[in-house]
Write a structure and sequence with these properties.
Layout lengths: L1 E6 L3 H12 L5 E6 L2 H10 L4 E4 L8 H9 L9 E5 L4 H9 L4 E4 L4 H9 L4
Parallel strand pairs: 1-2, 1-3, 3-4, 4-5
Length: 122
Amino acid sequence: MKNVLVVDDSRIMRNIVKNTFSQLKIPCQFMEASNGKEALQIISSQKIDLVLLDWNMPELSGIEFLKMVRAKDEYKDIPIFMVTSEAAKYNVIEALKNGATDYIIKPINEKIFQEKLSKITI
């Protein structure tokens, strides 16, 4: 069973992401965090196989979380997908430069979500 960490300050968005992911029929257990700080605590205490990460959050943003996680060797192989409404090209470039595996723009298109996730092994 794979552990998927969904990080978003909106409970509604976390549920949408989980529901979309569940439709892909990948057996997994979801963990949730409402900001990057909570996500750091979870990732340091449990094995995480995939992170679905929002950009704009209080306390610690998605991009700050991404930079901190990618700075540590033990997390370098965890796929991290930014799932955000930040659609500007420079945001996508910044996320990918800082180690994001891929970038999904909200609202989530299920077909695109599935295509991007099919490129990784979880």
